[in-house]
């Protein structure tokens, strides 16, 4: 068991010994309110009442848990999660009982670190309709599975719905014999407390393979409508969101936005994030060839099969670029790629509001798969062209021009960021970002552009990049690609691939 989790459970064990399984709260001798199971036939949006956490510290003052619960229900929440752990999250069973007493027909989740099967009866009498069971608490313990199974079966005996939480493949394998109806994938790493959305998203398919009948909820890392859209695109059956909503001035509106964005992603199922995250899961360095200006180059690049071929082609809509391409030409190239090389992601590169609007139209019409937002202002890293990226309901990633560590903002919107060199023309200059600067950024998914060519490729590969964006380093002249150089790039990647 990881250290923080071990501390929490050890403290809980001590508190149970001194206060009892009810932690000193007056629990009804029998259940008062009806049992309300979660609705699993539609997007299950679970909102959380949460004052603090070991990772975030104090999140927000909750003057009335019932008022907050009401705002959640007004926004369309289908279940309310109440943090009941007292020492590290400043919650309590009293909070849960207040919520259930105020809204007896709401589905209420006891989010806690349940250790003992006897806690399930307490949860039932207190009014819980669901309980969280954390696989990581049992997986390394002696007879851990039997302990978890006993608690799980006790839930079923009371009609309570258990939400089994996992973080990795090992935990999925651990819970599979239980054949749970509801599983939560938590994107927070319990060792580092960092959020890793790509890895959690990839687990969605793995869990579906092991437990095809299970509904799957995404937990942690939801902080905007844009992130809810991305989660929906992976086919999750719902999400659990806490810290973001507690800190919101208008949680009702925030929930409505999350729910609408999630449903849109679920309906559209755009393939951009799915393709990118699955390739990273397989430790593949994604190769993007940018600055495509003509159909001939696009088709010749598409023909290359070495290393599985090129993953992305980029089309620059910035009019000040020597590699600028009109949207009508992008459409013609896209039609051919869709027919002959549908595996290649088509990316529009923009640098201002006008080019962004053009790209969004191409995206809506299905000609491109994603948008690269270039020239991000590090002073306003969550904004682009005077609009909030947190509300963006399309597939995108940002690019920052970096020379020194001070040029980079870690607070950018989205899951990953392309690091490009600084240049007057804004790309395709052949200039590279210094390797020590790239390493100092400590990006979990390092995506690099600027000055990459066959001669220095191995130097960049030594950085273990997640993506390489290559432009002028494989050209005969601006906008005309040298297919031989691209083949050299892919041959080097093939020869250095880890089997």
Report on the structure:
With 499 residues, the protein is α/β, with parallel strands linked by helices. The chain has two domains: 3-269, Aldolase class I (TIM Barrel, Alpha-Beta Barrel), CATH 3.20.20.70; 273-496, TIM Barrel (Alpha-Beta Barrel), CATH 3.20.20.70. The chain has helices at residues 3-19, 65-74, 93-102, 118-126, 144-158, 169-175, 197-210, 225-233, 243-247, 251-268, 272-281, 295-303, 327-340, 353-364, 435-440, 457-461, 483-496, and strands spanning 44-49, 52-53, 57-58, 79-83, 108-111, 130-134, 161-166, 182-186, 215-219, 238-241, 286-289, 312-316, 345-350, 370-373, 383-384, 387-388, 396-401, 417-420, 447-449, 467-470, 475-477, 480-481. The protein has an eight-stranded parallel barrel, surrounded by seven helices. Strand 5 (108-111), helix 4 and strand 6 (130-134) form a beta-alpha-beta unit. Helix 4 (118-126) runs parallel beside helix 5. The two termini are 31 Å apart. 47% of the residues are buried. The model has no long low-confidence stretch (mean pLDDT 95).
